[in-house]
Amino acid sequence: MTQVMSTLAKVDWQGMAVYTAKNPKQAFINAAIAYVVFRQTLKVAKRVSIYGLRSTLSLLWKQITGVVLRHIRRAPGTGIVVQRNISKIVKDIEDSMNVMVPGESKYLTVPEQGMSDDEILAILKRRQNEAGIDWKGGRASGAVYHGGEELVRLTNEAYAMYNLTNPLHPGVFPGLRRIEAEVVRMVLDLYNGDADCCGTTTSGGTESIIMAVRSHVVWGREIRGINNANIVVPVTAHAAFDKAAEYFGIGITHIPVDPLTQKVDVNAMRRAIDSDTVLIVGSSATFPHGVDDDLDALSKLAIKYKVGFHIDSCLGSFVMPFLKEAGFPEVVCDFRLPGVTSISCDTHKYGFAPKGTSVVMYRNKQMRHYQYFTISTWPGGIYASPTIAGSRSGAVIAGCWAAMTKMGRNGYLQQCKDIVNCRIEIQRGIEQIPELYVVGKPSSTVVAFSSHEPVGIFGIMDEMKKRGWDLSPLQYPSALHLACTRLTVPVAGEFLRDLSDSVAQVKASPESYSKGSQAIYGFASTVPDTTIIDEVAQGFIDALYAA
């Protein structure tokens, strides 16, 4: 500080004032340039403090090459060639999805005459049995969180019973209102919420996260006067945080993780927090690697800098609260951490509820109020809704309540033991294969792994697919992950045998796997112009609606 004051004392302030008076236009231009340079210098300095010099230069180089490639794509000849290749890839995706099924009709207009019940159910049955991954045999990573046939029958019955209900009308369906409130309260109890803690149900983890972000953005605006809010998240945090940032037009800073543990770098997160930060994020557990961030340290960080702290436990859901009781290392990921202001938990994962149910929880009612939407001047009357949707299905909420009350704490405790032990068995098996290594330090139901060159990890994925397994591909670093479920437990040994055989197959001829998934995911992780990947991804979504 003394050096700064000494330097300022040497400035010829009188001379600057005279120059400004004589050359106001030039002085203004100089000041504007200096301001821009100062702002950009601050941005670069902040990036370096978060990512380090080497990573910052790498990111900068990728951005520059991306801009150059986008301009090249606009050139008459090159642009046509690139677009033609993108269109071909998208067309191949659509053709692979929209396959003609022999003897099966397409229904592109409403039939003139209604079909019989038997006809309708026969068509639905045929389409249900169309060839795909054998998820019932435990060969899918996550995707289907099956609580057992008995539980499925019960939740289906509850679903049918409440098929016509809508929580938008609590006066019409008062029993449903109680059911929904009890679902929220039961989840709060699992996450050690006290009487002041509260929450709402949502349609899934993405909506829970979006609602939590909205709540903190509104809190920042109304309480702290922040009009250009930003959030700070680990690079491994769920993509729903990026979706929320895009939807709300706010800034988002992605924090690197430790390459060994895959936990977020807490010091880098501290350096990223600024006066416009409304929320920091930690996961329990992360989707890519099944790792829990250092939540205690993040809680302390949130308190110190007076920002919100959200724990994403959508994947950890009904596993993390039972780890200690099940005999595994405890992960404290709940309201016992004083800095936590919100938590998301998917009931439709390891809670075994029907798809389309999740819970977002808050430290107090005031934080929950920032999530709500209300309008008192609409000609249709006073309108208020807790989440994005207006009308919602009461059926999935009833199914969720049925699943939770049927399973009970003992049921969830046993499932935690079985599924986490399954992950541990598979992790140990992977560690016995010399060509593979586990990515990060998993703590719950997910294990991620990669391979040592020349054995390509995506070649292994292709071989496993030939054997009927559907694994999730990861990037940065390139890896695969398996989210173990109740259905994985009886086939863990079979998985490891097929994995060992797949590795041996790729090792015998690694060069023959340069195409296929290796080419696709290798290209996606290295191409500087990400808009190319975006266009292909948009084409994939378009293909989902090709009839």
Number of helices: 18
What is the molecular shape?
globular
Helix residue percentage: 40-55%
**Gyration radius, rounded:** 27 Å
Q: Which strand-content bin applies to the residues?
A: 5-15%
Mean pLDDT: 91
The order of strands across the largest sheet is 1-7-6-5-4-2-3
> Count of DSSP E strands?
13
Q: How far apart are the first and last residues' alpha carbons, in Å?
A: 69 Å
Please identify the structural class as seen in this structure: alpha/beta
Unreliable parts: none
How would you characterize the largest beta sheet? Answer: 7 strands, mixed
Give a description of the structure.
This protein is an alpha/beta fold and about 550 residues long. Helices cover about 50% and strands about 10% of the residues. It is built from 18 helices and 13 strands. It has helices at about 1-10, 15-20, 25-50, 55-75, 75-95, 115-130, 150-160, 175-190, 205-225, 240-250, 265-270, 295-305, 365-370, 395-430, 455-465, 490-510, 515-525, 530-545, and strands at about 200, 230-235, 250-255, 275-285, 310, 340-345, 360, 375, 385, 435-440, 445-450, 470-475, 480-485. Strands 1-7-6-5-4-2-3 form a seven-stranded mixed β-sheet, with helices on both faces. A hairpin with a 7-residue loop joins strand 10 (about 435-440) and strand 11. It is globular.
